[in-house]
Amino acid sequence: MDKNENMRGNENEVILDTNELRLIEGHGRLKVKLSGSRIEAEFHNLEGPRFLTSYLKGKPAEMAPLVASRICGLCYTAHSINAAEAVEEALGVTPEEEVVELRRLLYLANNLRSHMMHLLFLSVPPIKGLISVFRLREKELVAAGTRLLSTSTQLIEHWGGRSVHVPNVVVGGFGALVRGKELMESIRKIESLRADARLFVEHVLDMELPELERFRTMISLKADTYPTYAREAPLIINDGSMITDEEYVSDLEEVVKEYSTSKHVYFRGSEATVGALSRIMLNRRRLNPEAREYSERIEWRINPFLMIKAQAVELMHYLEEIIEAGERLSDATIAPNGYPCMRNGKKGKTEACFTGRGGKGIAIAEAPRGTLCHACEIEDGLIKDYRVYTPTALNSKSIEMDSVEMVKRFRPLGGEKLKYVLEDLVRCYDPCLSCAVSLDFLSDR
Amino acid sequence: MKAAFYSLTSCEGCLTTLITNLGPNLQALWKIFDIDYFKLVREPVGGEKVPRVDIAFVEGAVVTSLDKKRISQIRANSSFVVALGTCASCGNIAYTASRGVDLSKRRLRDLEVFEAEPLSSHVNVDFELSGCPVSAEEFTEALLRLLNGIEPRQPDFSVCYECKLKGNRCLLEVGKLCLGPLAMGGCGAACPSVGAPCYSCRGPAVEADLAAYLKTIEKHGIAESKATSAIRAFTGKKIAELLKNGQK
Q1: Which SS3 state, helix, strand or coil, does residue B233 take?
Q2: Where are the domains of chain B?
């Protein structure tokens, strides 16, 4: 009897199916179903799991940044810096202030690069109905975007040691000597691109976007400045309350979905949205002057489509912030400080790094796509447990609920048209399915 | 000529590297090729259908049933298949990591997950361009060779060669485990140049000599077990062969 009822419940009519989503990071699919009179959406992650976090278990703690970096090819710097910080917290290592400052700079450059990549290649062209960025009529816009993209990549390459998967970020600090003077020179190059950034930001801010306001919980870090990478900063929720990083992690819940290789993450049993829009809505008073001016042009509401405008405003903020951070670091010299065990590496007497040390560590920062959290437990220098809560895993639930809302409101448009708008909606969240799959459906808990 | 750029299970860092590092030259690819499929850059012509092309660049490892289907379709429709990056050429970290997980524990509704394999475990691969991520310079060189009908080549030197050219201090000499002597070069010794050890992300070098390497690290007081665990990290499949030969 029960079984029969279940069968009937499963006889869902698929009203919309995007097939494999185009122009997003990873492989995903969105299905909207009608079950009885209820509309339900399923956001499928089709990316295969690579089990990077379970690989880390039992490995030496200093391997965390190296392996975590491989989670994502777009926000690798965020993953390796968060990993380094989580391990440091667990081991009780406090990096120097200048190290934190330079990490912040790398974080900013990576966020800038990721936003640029997303806006230029993945989100703006399809909203305009184009199949590729190279079909954009505004050629100077493409050139400006490309310049910003490659210059920010060069900055990462110079200070991270490679353009993708930076080896210079290590537990304890940086592997190579960093001189403030050289840093300034490389920053000057990106400083000259302000005009390019203005052109791009203004173009995105002038775009016409669909209306889809729906209230939900929004979360962002809250620091003294506009949040990106800040050690030990609390989080703020859009009901005005603040929570610590430990409270945040204990409020997260991993939920297995039978249609997705990645788990969804719920906050206090329900959805929460993180990302550029959450950051802007909760922190826009702390934006740098020019970015703030741009932000005042927009009437910010909880409309996921506004995420790309929020990213555009942040683009300007990050650029201003990089220049400022560079000025602060201009006199600094950061000595190589990775792997403390190496400093007294006498011949024939190499000690394992961090032997006998352990603890728990949490690192939370604002990665391009939202609040990224790495949590680890270390025992005797080896990783015992490693967890990554990615922004996309959190946003998945919101993507589904927004899709339902969208179908409810715009159903008269007809399936074919609606499909494209739905794809645009998913892309505005800037989902990164390679990241999300680090919470693979097979891992415990 | 027609070319296509596909992505299987990966971080998509290789295609991103090409996009950002080729910069303004990316568009020039369209002047040389008809590109109907380029993940992250354009909407594919013909939707999910795999187009017929002369050269197919494929990043990522084969992990899901979707990847399996995709790679056999790609092989059937492409004259020359290039594996782009370490996931595609060796399986990367996922190769070793997926072998420590009980895959039968839970099932998904419409997707199956298998142990990660490089492309060559499923289809014939014409050329492998290793690296995590792949280097844009090496990609360009291989592309130019292919365009001129010359077989592309892999670097035939180890990471140590480039590391010495850069004048870096040897990490083994300070007692730090570094896989440079075993690893295929071509990366410009990116990691040792910033003081981080090489983890051999491009697979074994042509001249890799495991027995000699183990002797060397013993001399510097580094445990063999530490080395063999590190060797398995990135290039699971290829290094497994090397380890097997080394034991003989």
Answers
A1: helix
A2: 2-147, 159-247
CB B75 within 8 A of CB B52: no
Question: What is the dotted CATH code of the domain comprising B2-147?
Answer: 3.40.50.700
> Model confidence over B147-191: pLDDT tens digits?
999 999 999 999 999 999 999 989 998 888 899 999 999 999 999
ipTM value: 0.94
Q: Model confidence over A159-206: pLDDT tens digits?
A: 899 999 999 998 888 888 778 788 888 888 888 899 999 999 999 999
Report the residue of chain A nearest B10, measured CA to CA.
A434
Asked if B195 lies within 8 A of A150 by C-beta distance, the reply is no
Measured in angstroms, the CA of A146 and the nearest CA of chain B are apart by 6
8 Å CB contact between A91 and A378: yes
Q: Tokens in use for B155?
A: 């670097």
Question: One-letter amino acid identity for A359?
Answer: G
Closest to B17 (Cβ–Cβ): which among A48, A143, A163? Answer: A163
- Do residue B16 and residue A338 have CB atoms under 8 angstroms apart? no
Interface contact A146, partner B, CB < 8 A: yes
Across the interface, of B47, B116, B221, the residue whose CB is closest to A348 is B221
Of B40, B47, B106, the CB nearest to A19: B47
Q: Do A259 and B66 touch (CB under 8 A)?
A: no
Question: What's the first-to-final CA gap in chain A, in angstroms?
Answer: 32
Closest CA to B86 of B171, B177, B226, B204: B204
Q: Are the CB atoms for A259 and A42 separated by under 8 Å? A: yes
Superfamily of the domain at A77-82+95-344+390-436: Cytochrome-c3 Hydrogenase, chain B (1.10.645.10)
Model pLDDT, residue A25: 94
| Nearest-neighbour CA in chain A from B66: distance (Å) | 8
Supply the pTM of this predicted model.
0.94
Q: pLDDT value at position A349?
A: 37
Distances (CA, A) of A225 to A104, A285, A286: 12, 9, 6
**Angle formed by the axes of helices A307-328 and A97-117, to 10°?**
150
Q: Mean of the per-residue pLDDT values for chain A?
A: 90
Q: What is the distance between the alpha carbons of residues B7 and B71, in angstroms, rounded to a whole number?
A: 10
